[in-house]
Amino acid sequence: MITPRVAKLRQQSLDAIPTISAERAVLMTEAYRSHAGLLSAPMRRALAFRYGMEHKTIYMSATAS
User: Fold this and answer.
1) DSSP of 3-61
2) What is the pTM of this model?
3) Per residue in 20-57, pLDDT tens?
4) N or C: which end of the chain has fewer CB within 10 A?
5) Cα–Cα dist 40/49, whole Å
């Protein structure tokens, strides 16, 4: 059984409009370039994700409740 909170979060996720972030693209490019040719592909992806999460701007929707 699904709780009302989880149902609401699921619906918000399904209703979300996909967007493209220029900031994310820049951060991922910086991260991949800093490790170019030095590590395996899975490790580069993991480090790029980490770099992105550490440096991206935090956004909080005004409609969140």
Assistant:
1) -HHHHHHHHHHHHPPP---HHHHHHHHHHHHHTTTTS-HHHHHHHHHHHHHHHSPP---
2) 0.67
3) 899 999 999 999 999 888 899 999 999 999 999 999 99
4) N
5) 14
